[in-house]
């Protein structure tokens, strides 16, 4: 359970960091740049704790899959990023992959 909390924290921090990265305007704005560095550092720290007990491949698949969907949703809401049918289908496949891994794979039980 602890690994899941740290993994979800890592994902949330990475999404905040990536959102701040967009707002930093290529690191030309101070506070979004500072937030980016702090969030990425904290995200990797949380991920490192997750990797103590969760298999690396599983943790990284969850980190990247959930992160992709969340940052796309944030970009759509905050920055007006358009999502066409292939983008939505691709994200649905990512979500399906994460669900399949968690429901049916014995790898996630380690």
From TrEMBL:
GO cellular component, one term: plasma membrane
Membrane topology: Multi-pass membrane protein
GO terms (BP aspect): glycine betaine transport; xenobiotic detoxification by transmembrane export across the plasma membrane
InterPro entries (alphabetical): EmrE-like (IPR037185), Small_drug/metabolite_transptr (IPR000390), Small_multidrug_res (IPR045324)
Compartments, as annotated in UniProt: Cell membrane
Transmembrane intervals: 30-51, 58-79, 85-104
Primary localization: membrane
Keyword annotations from UniProtKB, A to Z: Cell membrane, Membrane, Transmembrane, Transmembrane helix, Transport
Gene Ontology molecular functions: amino-acid betaine transmembrane transporter activity; antiporter activity; choline transmembrane transporter activity
Gene3D superfamilies xref list: 1.10.3730.20
One Pfam family in the UniProt entry: Multi_Drug_Res
Family, similarity comment: Belongs to the drug/metabolite transporter (DMT) superfamily. Small multidrug resistance (SMR) (TC 2.A.7.1) family.
Name of the molecule in the record: QacE family quaternary ammonium compound efflux SMR transporter
Organism: Pseudoxanthomonas composti
């Amino acid at each position: 359970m602890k690994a899941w909390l740290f993994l979800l924290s890592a994902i949330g921090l990475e999404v905040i960091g990536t959102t701040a990265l967009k707002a930093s305007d290529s690191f030309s704005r101070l506070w979004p740049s500072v937030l980016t560095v702090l969030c990425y550092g904290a995200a990797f720290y949380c991920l490192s704790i997750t990797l103590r007990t969760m298999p690396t491949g599983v943790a990284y698949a969850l980190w990247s899959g959930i992160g992709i969907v969340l940052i796309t949703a944030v970009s759509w809401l905050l920055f007006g990023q358009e999502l066409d049918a292939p983008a939505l289908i691709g994200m649905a496949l990512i979500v399906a992959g994460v669900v399949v891994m968690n429901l049916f794979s014995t790898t996630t039980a380690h």
